[in-house]
Amino acid sequence: MADPITTDDRTTTSAPTAADDRTRAYWNTRHREQDDLTAGGHIGLDRPGHEIFYALRLGTLLTLIGDLSNPPSPLFVLDAGCGEGRLARALSRCGHRVDAIDTSSEAIAHARAKGGGPRYAEASLTGWRSPWLYDVVLCVDVLLHVRDDAQWAASLRNLASLVRVTGRLIVSDEDGHARTALGDSIVHRTTAAYRSALQPLGLHHTLSKPYGFRENPVGFHVFTRIR
Fold it and tell me: Residue 15: phi, psi to the nearest 5?
C-alpha cells in the first residue's frame, strides 16, 4: 500500500471555497452510501453495466496514455477526482506512478483502505498543488459535475498548470455544440468551451474519443501542452 501524500512530500492544497464545501458534502454522502463500483459510476446502470463501463473507459484511457511506462522510468499520472480509486489502481497496476486526489474525505478513506499503489490525498480540483509536473493529468467524469462556470474554469486552469510540456490533460464531457444542463448535478459544456479555456494556457486540443458505451454521448478530450 502506498503512503498517503503528506506535506513532507511538498504537496499542498489551497483553502477550500464555498463551492468546494458544497461539492464535498454531496460526494461524501454518495461515497458513504455506495461502494466504489457505483459511487462514481453512471446513475441507472446495474452492477454488470458498471463493470463494463469501467473496463471500456480504462481500455480507451490506456490507448490514449500509451505504453511508454517501464519500472526505471514510469509515467507520472494525476487522477483528479479519483473517487474511491478504481481507475487509479488500474493505472498503477499498468506500471504508472499515480497520484490520486478527491474532494471527498469518504472517498479517499475508502481508496486508502484498498491501497493498490496510488498515493492519495484529499483535495479539490482547484486546490491541488504539486512540486512536480505530470506526464498525464486525468479528470474523468468530474468536470461535468461542476455546475458553476467560474469554478469549472478555475479547475481547468489549475489542472493545466500541472501538465509538463508535451504532456497531456485528458478530460471527459460530451463532444457537443451546445451547453446543456441535466438535473441539479450535471452540466455538459461544448468542446469549443474547453478549447477556449485551455488554448491560452498552452494546451492544444489533439483528439476527442467517445466512450462508445451504449447511448452515452460522453467521451475523452485530449489536450497536449505545446508550450
Answer: -60, 140
Instruction: Give pLDDT tens digits for 12-37.
Output: 555 556 666 777 776 666 667 777 67
Tell me the three cell numbers of residue 66: 500509451
What residues contact 215, with CB distance under 8 A and at least 6 apart?
A: none
CA–CA distance, 77 with 92 (Å, rounded to integer)? 9
The per-residue pLDDT for 25 is: 75
Please tell me the distance from the alpha carbon of residue 121 to that of residue 11, in angstroms, as a whole number.
9
Given a contact cutoff of 8 angstroms between Cβ atoms, the answer to whether 122 and 99 are in contact is no
Q: What's the confidence (pLDDT) of residue 70?
A: 67
d(CA 100, CA 122): 9
Taking the C-alpha atoms of residue 150 and residue 65, their distance in angstroms, rounded to an integer, is: 29
Average pLDDT, the chain: 87
Domains of the chain: 14-64+73-225 (3.40.50.150)
The arrangement of strands across the sheet holding 163-174 comes to: 119-122, 97-102, 76-80, 134-139, 163-174, 218-225, 203-210
Q: What number is the average pLDDT over the span 93-112?
A: 94
Q: Kindly state the percentage of the chain with pLDDT values over 90.
A: 66
